[in-house]
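Researcher: Sequence of Membrane protein follows. Predict its structure.
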Amino acid sequence: MKIGVPVSQIMTKNLVTLSTKDDLVTAERLFKKHNIRHIPVVDGENIKGMLSLTDLMRISFADAIDEHEEVVDTIVYNMFTIPQVMVSNLVSVDPNATIKEVAQILANREFHALPVVEGDKLKGIVTTTDLIQYFLRGLD
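Model: Prediction complete. Tokens:
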């Protein structure tokens, strides 16, 4: 296993994205459909923020388990916009950043995904899951 490998080798390139004009109901649908936990928010190819499933859960009534839960969540989601909920002061990495550099950033911060950006253009995202899978492949 090589820790000097560029993050571009393990990042997710085929991204599910949102725009700032999308709504949180759409975001929730994408999280569930693609079984993902982070969605970059973009304007064209430029990243504007990152929305996590955790961000969405913080504003929902996820603990309210009854037949009206979906309706309640939809009402709450319609009270907020994506720009109000997303993280906009992002830490990002260049595609040439090493896996070790990315692992150090994620280990020292309180988030689990980093956008991979070249200039202002989003090229991919790397998550703690991507890193764990890479490290596990190195154990074989």
